[in-house]
């Protein structure tokens, strides 16, 4: 069982008799006698399931004046005029199926805006309901996310080392890969060569000379022999003096 829900209520609207449309340019409210409306009453926009009906009722008794079934918006059942946002042309129908076109007007622009929003929201909901019913009847296409035969994937992972630097590890089997992790960012640093050692000074030792009598650095062997000869001369001079005494 479907219930009737009220979408919008406006306590005062104006109904006008309108002349036939002269051309395809659309209806114009300026062509109506706006100062003398044909009828004044209450408007209710109601929905029953997906059906939407605009009802014109007496403000005091609530008696029905006319019904305007709306199957789509914008459409033939209700159409905005070309020269004002407060006026519409509606198609009313009686119980025998006869229809007539009347002018509908509001005293305030906010009232006509509310009618626009209510109609748009209703038919948006109808469209969503149709989509849901369509998905229930049509089988859903299931996605096959499995691996096909011979299909592989490659995953790049960022690995943080103990020193805080990041390296990348690639998983997956690639032809020709050695399995060695790539070097850290920044490339291979060049290692500086060790400092050159000072050349060692080699002292040649004369045969038969003990370490105690090794000449000091900077003296040559010739100096050693000259010193030895000087000592011998002093010793001979001393012996000579002793003989003369």
Quick recap of the structure?
This protein has helices at 109-137, 221-244; strands at 4-17, 39-48, 51-57, 64-70, 78-80, 87-93, 99-105, 155-160, 166-171.
- Helix and strand content put the structural class at alpha+beta
User: How many helix segments?
Assistant: 2
- The CATH topology annotation of one domain reads as PH-domain like
Shape: elongated
Sequence of strands across the biggest β-sheet: 4-3-2-1-7-6-5
What is the residue-mean pLDDT, rounded to a whole number? 76
* Uncertain spans: 170-176, 217-230, 233-245
- Output the radius of gyration: 57 Å
Instruction: Compute the separation of the termini in Å.
Output: 166 Å
Give the name of the CATH architecture of one domain.
Answer: Roll
Provide structural commentary.
- The protein is of the alpha+beta class.
- The protein has a domain at 4-137: PH-domain like (Roll).
- The chain contains 2 helices and 9 strands.
- It has helices spanning 109-137, 221-244, and strands spanning 4-17, 39-48, 51-57, 64-70, 78-80, 87-93, 99-105, 155-160, 166-171.
- The chain has a 7-stranded antiparallel beta sheet with strand order 4-3-2-1-7-6-5. It has a two-stranded antiparallel sheet with strand order 8-9.
- A hairpin with a 5-residue loop joins β6 (87-93) and β7.
- Residues 170-176, 217-230 and 233-245 have low confidence and may be disordered.
- Residues 181-197 have a biased composition (Pro residues).
- Residues 3-157 form the NECAP PHear domain.
